[in-house]
Amino acid sequence: MDAVGESQPLLKAGDSRWADRSFFALILACGLCVLALVGLIVYELITKSSLSWHAFGLKFFFRSEWDPVNEQFGALPFVYGTIVSSVVALAIAVPLAIGVAVFITEMSPRWLRGSLAFTTELLAAIPSVIYGLWAIFILVPLLRTYVQPFLARYFGWTGLFEGPPYGIGMLAAGIILAIMVIPIVSSITREVMTAVPQQQREAVLALGATRWEMIRTGVLRNARAGILGGIILGLGRALGETMAVTMVIGNRPEIAKSLFAPGYKSLFAPGYTMASVIANEFSEATGDVYLSALVEVGLALFIVTIIVNILAQFLVWTVTRGMPARTHV
């Protein structure tokens, strides 16, 4: 009989080794399943787009013609629409998101900080179709009645804001994307700002700096790599957004050239994105080349999104887990 207080092992030595090996194999299988899933997606996209690759090659991304009847396809209008709508979104979202992050982290009263951070992050939980419905019933009428006539009257000379104020178009898509990007950029910015040691703030203030100078030199400058990573992560969200953009961008495969040459169509003009054309036309694609062209658009979007997200995660890592932040005063 065992002595009092003597503990018995839960498992014998052999059983313990078997349990450890089984647990390791199970966890390894879970990790490999994720890699296998990504590999399967890439394989399917490559094989299903082979007809388009053989028919058009790299010229597919530099052609503007999209004619399913004659099986002539080019992705340039969709690439253009994706880039323009994403750039407009970042131009609107980045200053607002960084301002919100700075206020919550450095200047907000304690009683307001939690609720404001929660409300900002809540924007990321709203389904994109809800954003699209809100844009159709609220944003588009506001743009058509007030915003676009104002921009055309006072900034039409730039060539960016010309043409009839339909409400839908590149500008509407950029604004709705900006609202969806704000919580991502803001949360990442707050994370990297929090990672900056408190000693950096105290050192800058001890040198006689004002509060704004402390935030600018002691916090934002040290966190700039992570903030840039958050911006790029927001860009990845903007590039791949589908439903909300599809509902307000107008879905017309053309290039609004007024961004480069005044006198042509502007940000008011309808457009198309890579994600939108897949969502709109995939179910209607009857020909093999037509279907293959849409899959090739998806492959390009997938590759770009993966690269953007990897770059963003690396930049965030340099602040939150990399070398310690250095003070630049």
Please tell me what the overall shape is. flat
Terminal-residue CA separation: 72 Å
- What's the Cα radius of gyration? 26 Å
- Please state the average pLDDT score: 84
- Count the strands? 2
Q: What structural class results from the helix and strand content?
A: mainly alpha
Low-pLDDT parts are 258-264, 323-329
What order do the SSEs take from the amino end to the carboxyl end, as H and E? HHEEHHHHHHHHHH
Residue share in helix: 55-70%
The main pleated sheet reads as:
2 strands, antiparallel
How would you describe this protein?
With 329 residues, the chain is mostly helical. It contains twelve helices and two strands, in the order ααββαααααααααα. A two-stranded antiparallel ribbon has the order 1-2. The C terminus is likely disordered.
Which labels suit this protein?
2 strands, disordered C terminus, 329 residues, 12 helices, 1% strand, mainly alpha, flat
Question: Brief description of this entry?
Answer:
This protein has 12 helices and 2 strands. The protein has 329 residues and is mainly alpha-helical.
How would the blueprint of this fold be written?
Layout: H1 13-48, H2 50-56, E1 66-67, E2 72-73, H3 76-107, H4 110-122, H5 128-155, H6 170-195, H7 198-206, H8 211-220, H9 224-240, H10 243-248, H11 274-281, H12 288-320
Antiparallel strand pairs: 1-2
Helix pairs in contact: 1-12, 2-12, 3-6, 3-9, 3-11, 4-6, 6-9, 7-8, 9-12, 11-12
